[in-house]
Every structure is written in C-alpha cells, then in structure tokens.
Write a structure and sequence with these properties.
This protein is mostly beta strands and 137 residues long. The protein contains 1 helix and 10 strands, in the order βββαβββββββ. Helices cover 6% and strands 44% of the residues. The strands form 3 sheets. Strands 5, 7, 8 and 9 form a 4-stranded antiparallel β-sheet that branches. A 3-stranded antiparallel β-sheet has the order 1-2-3, with no helix packed on it. A hairpin with a 2-residue loop joins strand 1 and strand 2. 18% of the residues are buried.
Length: 137
C-alpha cells in the first residue's frame, strides 16, 4: 500500500516511480478515475463543485459571481506583486442570501494605513489582479 496519508486518503506512484499516480483509501481500496475521484482530491465531498477565476477588484469589497448555486468555502490570493494601495486580500462567502447573493463571494482587499503603520484599512485604486477558488453546489 502507498505511503503518504492525508485526510484519510493515500497518494502513491507505481513501483519504480513514473508519472502515474493512484489514490487509495485507508482500507487499501484503489479509487478508479471517475467523477468521485475529483471530489476526493479536493476534499470537497460528494455533490460539491469547484469554481475558480481571476478578477481585478473595483472596490475594497468586490462581489464575484462564481457560477455556483451556493458557496460554502472560498479562498483568494493576489496574482501579482502587492502594492501599497492593495497589499492583502481574502475571500468571504457571506450569508449567501443577499450579502453576497447566493453563488457569489466577496473579494476583500486591504492596504496599510500609512508607510509606517501597517494597520489594515480598505484598499484603494490601483487594484491588482486576484485569483480565487470557491467550493459549493
């Protein structure tokens, strides 16, 4: 049986290395290449989907429609080099019933208060590109 355990699943390469990877559960059962394998690799579980994209925000709390019906988790990261006007970023799923609307996420952006004070405040233009990933139904 393979040797790298993470979240109840084990990833391995065939004997002698190579590029083919296999996924085993902790009972020694090999997963086949099917739709459920993608969910296992993502840790999302059955019935969940993943959406992803890149956006350049136009406000410190920018709404992104993900294409999902409902979002249960999201992450975001700056795509390029941080700037003094757009230094940190995060993703918020909100309440999914208006703030933001179901299937959307909020990309939250911050900057330091001043060059000598890194207390976060709402970011301002110019904005940098942000990559995001959302999991939902």
């Amino acid at each position: 049986m393979p040797n790298h355990v993470d979240s109840g699943y084990v990833m391995s390469k065939p004997n002698g290395g190579g590029t083919k990877k296999q996924l085993w559960d902790t009972n020694g059962n090999l997963f086949q290449n099917d739709a459920s394998l993608a969910n296992v690799l993502l840790g999302a579980g059955t019935g969940y989907k993943v959406a992803r994209g890149t956006v350049t925000p136009t406000s410190a709390s920018h709404t992104v429609a993900t294409g999902l019906t409902t979002v249960v988790a999201a992450v975001a990261t700056l795509r390029g080099t941080p700037t003094l006007t757009h230094l940190w970023v995060g993703a918020d799923v909100g309440n999914q019933s208006g703030a933001p609307a179901a299937g959307s996420i909020l990309i939250k952006s911050w900057k330091p208060t001043a060059s000598g004070d890194v207390t976060p405040i709402a970011a301002t233009t110019p904005w940098g590109a942000v990559d995001w990933i959302a999991i939902g139904t």
